[in-house]
Amino acid sequence: MSSSKYPSWLNAFFSNENQVSFDKPNANALLNSISPLFLKAIDSLNSENPFFLASYSDNRLYFYGFAHSKKQLLELKNSLYFALGTSHTSTHKIITSPDLGFEIESLKKFRNGIIKFEFYFSKSPNQNQTNINYVVTTLAQMHKRFEQRPILSINTKRPVGRILRDFFIALDQKDADLIDEYKEELKHAQGLSHRNFVGIELQAYAAKEEWGKIFEHPSFRDYSNGIIPSKIYLLIIEGLSKIFNIDLENLTDVDFGDVLTKLDPYAPLLLNKASIPINQSFESQWKHWAIFNLLLGAKDVKQILPNFIDEAWFDLAYKQIQASHVEMEVREAFSSELKALIKNDKTLDSATKLLDYSNNAPSTEIPEIVDWLNELPSKVIKQVKSVSPLRQRWNQLEDFIFDSEQIQDDPENSQTETKISAQATWNDWFCSNTEISTDVLLESDESGFEISLITERIKESSDSEKIRNITPTLLQWIQNKNKKTNAPFWLALIELISIDDQTSSGTILLLKELIFNLLDVPHSSDEYTDALSGIELVIETELSTRSLPYIIEFLERLHDYPIKDKNKLNYEIWPRVRAFAERNWNDLDLAHTSVLLWLERKLSVDILILSNLDKKEFEKESGNRALEGLKVGISTLTEKAGLRAAEILKSQFKDIEVILNHDKVATDKLTHLAKTADYFIFCNKSAAHQAYYAVKGITKDIIYVEGKGTSSIVRAFLMRVSGTN
């Protein structure tokens, strides 16, 4: 069939390879029964309704379901499951890549995928006619029901704070799909200033390791001319180190001359006061900052570095840069006028002159000015702030520095007092009606975090949404500071998050991290049960093919800890997950189905359902790989996840050898494995930096794993051996 009346993709679908004809009688009389589908499809091309088509090739008859959005596609798939069933057809699978040539153009048009299922012929021609009539009639009825549904144009926008919460959790998990989804949602919500949204885009690029896009962003130059939040400054430092290929453990291989020529455009930013937390977990960022500033000829680099940067390392780095014969021109970070002003005694007169100078100061000097002001004696601070113009200018400078993802046009925010003081703490945030920058909170002192007080505030707060939205920042601060916590604190957060009336896949990611933090501290059986009950509430509403991978990882990582409530896990949470997996088995990839089979053996107390499902796709994926006798090395600090991954890989690939390594540093055992393995898997989320540098110099062909769970390891391996990564 070919006609100018129809779209090109539709003409391509009914090519010679597809033997179904709708514009003339078919040689196979059975196929004439399908004509009503085509007529309804033509009517739906210019509407928002789904429709069905069919193909016949190599004596196999396939039906296809088309939808105009991802949500509609999933609705259509669920409708097929309940209305048509599988008595006469295969299961209904969403395909995103073509199996047959005539499917190519259709998949380009419908990028969310197409539903495909095969009609099963019987030996009786009469029975075949009856069965085809049944299928076609059922599909026509489904089409009619979609046509009769009222079109409701309800555009619901989630609060920007909730989207930001989900975005930052997706960043932490490095989930590229969710990062992009929430970034687009933030863009359309229009609740952030242009500058703050640029910051969101830069963080998204960094999480996906698209370093070049950060510096190619059309607004990067304007953005970097302003005051940059600490988290953005950190990713810029990391991005520059990546694009310049600077290996801190092997500086002799770095072409410093080439780096210097490319570094010059970023000099104003790098010569500015370093916005890096003084915390040993940021040691690599401090070292890269030192190298960049040495190359740029900055003064007093060694004096600025924190105490945990080894002097011997700095001296060696300085000598290696000198040995490269790079001409390091001495540059001044600040003007001579500013340098003279900040050398003055800390008096009211000096502060007045400095604030007056700030009116025409470049943005790179403002952090130094604010630091000097904050070091004034308390008596002088009171004198300065008693003068209205001086107080207003001071506040403007602090607002400029600590600007973060503030939501615009939010009536709730307008009711709160703004507190940007560099001395603000978590106690201040929880105990007063203030808005404090996340940059300030991330750098706040540990002494300002009283866990019993904050736990009570979480339980009693009348502004639950505010606490939910700050939770990702709180998690990051606790991790950076290695702060000691307890089970009541984590349980209070879990319960608060789980009863949110608007949840998402991001909510499951957040709860997963909160629960594992609870499991890492002493806790009771009751607290364990309450934590599982919290995530169970969200699973009930958010269980989908999108969230299933997160739930699978959660369930398998639970086995890294003592199971304190088998009834809750085996009889309440697992049956719901297993039933969903059974209905969608053909849409799941091998990495997830293999872990689900492992979970079924551990958690099912009755018959094994998943193990008896059709394994054709399972065997199809594993059967094409000649991996017999190959050695696979896995470096991970999450030992039990590594053991599960080894068990699964060895069960799927005949005579494959899997060797695990859990060393944090460059041991002989680790380096030997990296040298001799045919495939070397490195788990980014769970391995130490020292181990990474040890293997990076040995083999460039590393399989990187972003997650901590077994399915992440298995998926990364399968993608490599199949050539998709």
What's the topology here?
Layout: H1 8-13, H2 35-44, E1 51-57, E2 60-66, H3 70-83, E3 93-95, H4 104-109, E4 114-119, H5 125-148, H6 160-173, H7 176-189, H8 194-207, H9 211-216, H10 220-224, H11 230-243, H12 256-263, H13 267-270, H14 283-295, H15 301-304, H16 311-323, H17 336-341, H18 348-358, H19 366-374, H20 378-385, H21 388-401, H22 411-414, E5 417-418, H23 426-431, E6 434-435, H24 438-442, H25 451-460, H26 464-481, H27 487-498, H28 505-519, H29 525-542, H30 548-557, H31 566-583, H32 590-603, H33 616-623, E7 631-635, H34 639-652, E8 657-661, H35 668-676, E9 679-683, H36 689-696, E10 702-705, H37 710-721
Parallel strand pairs: 5-6, 7-8, 7-9, 9-10
Antiparallel strand pairs: 1-2, 2-4, 3-4
Helix pairs in contact: 6-7, 6-26, 6-28, 7-8, 8-11, 14-16, 19-21, 25-27, 27-28, 27-29, 28-29, 29-31, 30-32, 31-32, 32-37, 34-37
Question: What this model shows, in words?
Answer:
This protein is an alpha/beta fold. Among the domains are: 8-148, no CATH class; 160-323, no CATH class; 336-401, no CATH class; 621-721, Rossmann fold (3-Layer(aba) Sandwich). 55% of the residues lie in helices and 6% in strands. The strands form three sheets. The protein has a four-stranded antiparallel beta sheet with strand order 1-2-4-3. A four-stranded parallel beta sheet has the order 8-7-9-10, with helices on both faces. Helix 6 packs antiparallel against helix 7, helix 6 crosses helix 28 and helix 27 packs antiparallel against helix 28. The longest helix is centred in the first third of the chain and has 24 residues, at 125-148. It is elongated and about 100 Å long. The chain starts with 7 loop residues before the first helix and ends with a helix. The model is unreliable at 404-421 and 616-625 (pLDDT under 50).
